[in-house]
Amino acid sequence: MEKDAAGLAALLATTGVLHFVAPKPFDAIVPGGLPGTARQWTYLSGLCELAVAASIAHPRTRKAGGLAAAALFAAVFPANVKMAWDWRHASPAKRAIALGRLPLQIPLIAWGLRISR
To answer: Could you state, in order of their start, the residue ranges of all structural domains in the chain?
Structure first.
């Protein structure tokens, strides 16, 4: 597997697994107003990350996987906005982490799109 695709697949697989083994931090950033529980959304997003990682890892589905990764990174952006809002009065380190996640979505989306070509 190409190095660029392997890196994104590994990132997505790692975060996907974390959604199941340590779900509380992910539950906390699920935007309110979604139907169901935060834990259901945490598990669903983790499952999506694992599926996208698998699709990127296989050459036959890599193009679709890259597009799916870009869409997934765009879809989780509201969770990052919620985290930044929730942490607006937190310590400077936590605020920096939360705010730093917002522009990070741009290179992640670009990474998925690059793999889809």
So the answer is: 3-116
